[in-house]
Amino acid sequence: MLSQRAKKIKPSPTLSIDAKAKAMKAAGVDIVGFGVGEPDFDTPENIKEAAIKAIKDGFTKYTPVGGIDPLKDAIIEKFKKDNNLNYTRKEIIVSCGAKHSLYNIAQALFDPGDEILIPSPYWVSYPDQVILNDAIPVFVKTVEADSFMAKPEVIESHITKRTKALILNSPSNPTGLTYDKKTLEKIAEVVLKHNIYVVSDEIYEKLTYDGVTHVSIASFNNEIKAKTIVVNGLSKSYAMTGWRIGYAAGPKEIVKAMTNIQSQSTSNPTSIAQKAAVEALTGLQDFIHVMLTEFDKRRRFLIKELNSIPGMSCITPTGAFYAFPNTSRLYGKSLASKKISSSSDFSLYLLEEAKVALVHGDAFGDDNYIRLSYATSLDEINKGVSRIREAVNRLS
Ligand SMILES: *Cc1c(COP(=O)(O)O)cnc(C)c1O
């Protein structure tokens, strides 16, 4: 009965683990949640006020499909100021979240049989969005020894006549890697040499640590800018995951096609959320700094703790809000009938034995790791890692 397309798709594993943990919590179990991919901070007051004002003013009707001009202008200013990128309104589209922007890109750009390069570990939705559009995900495996960075020459070695695009994500979910400028410049050269596109997911751009800064691959020159679609959004930087505002910038023919596709599916993103987004981008930016300072404290603490658990090791992430520890040395161990031989086994073991929720690395394309989000309080992190330590100590 269901279409071939529907049969090929699995639900987002991060969202389903979150649902399982929430159900256990609702049943009264004291779960420590490292699963979620969203800030635990409340949306700043000035942003909420702008939304309330929009409602009171009656700004509650359809808007232009690709977003209202004041929001496009705020996005254009953001690109100028933060990324040294100049766009016009025709090169910008606002969607119902960055995920929706990415989906529109896949629909606008990928044909059946096109090969799309995805550095692995990857964010969970990239392969499925490629598959949903009958294109083929081609994984470019990266390793911990390179901080999970996809090397330009390795990317190049995966390019064939059928390669259409490369999906880049920096800072990265799940690894926390932030690509450096030199590497990105070399990747840009490879992209231009082979005339493919880059989809650059920069949603964690504001969340970097240790003096590392984000650079957009589109910013190097006009040639690479013409082959890049930059994706960004408000969910992570402004704690606005539920508002569903994301955006993309790129060549106007592509943006126009994305807008047409959006006009036949969701129409415009919520009018009220668009007004809130204008305030987020143009209002005081202090919130980001406050959130980042807190994330940084948690990051240092969590990484130190994870590295002190026998059998686990974790490189220090420079962006986003995730730790991605290596758990492979624990595989083969067991407790009674519970044998750990994969990241799923280990995650399930921790959920049942330690009442700690996190995501198995397999979901991101690498079974030797697990992902912990530190978008939760220091107290919870402390409680959670103690429980993990105990549960690991019980394995033999
Ligand atoms: C959270 C996330 C997104 C999606 O964000 P929304 O704007 O809420 O749709 C996109 N890419 C990555 C890597 C993410 O972690």
Task: Give an account of the 3D structure.
- This protein is of the alpha/beta class and 396 residues long.
- It has 2 domains: 4-42 and 287-393, Aspartate Aminotransferase, domain 1 (Alpha-Beta Complex), CATH 3.90.1150.10; 60-282, Type I PLP-dependent aspartate aminotransferase-like (Major domain) (Aspartate Aminotransferase, domain 2, 3-Layer(aba) Sandwich).
- Helix content is 41%, strand content 14%.
- It has 14 helices and 14 strands.
- The protein has helices at 4-8, 13-26, 45-56, 69-83, 98-109, 125-132, 152-157, 181-194, 222-225, 252-263, 271-282, 286-307, 343-354, 378-393, and strands at 32-33, 92-95, 115-120, 136-141, 163-169, 197-201, 228-233, 246-249, 322-323, 334-335, 338-339, 356-357, 359-360, 370-373.
- The strands form 4 sheets. Strands 2-8-7-6-5-3-4 form a 7-stranded mixed β-sheet, sandwiched between helices. Strands 9-14-13 form a 3-stranded antiparallel β-sheet. Strands 1-12 form a two-stranded parallel sheet.
- It is globular, with a radius of gyration of 21 Å.
- The mean pLDDT is 96.
- The protein binds pyridoxal-5'-phosphate (PLP).
- Pyridoxal-5'-phosphate binds next to α5.
- Pyridoxal-5'-phosphate binds at residues 37, 97-99, 123, 169, 173, 201, 203, 233, 235-236, 241, 246.
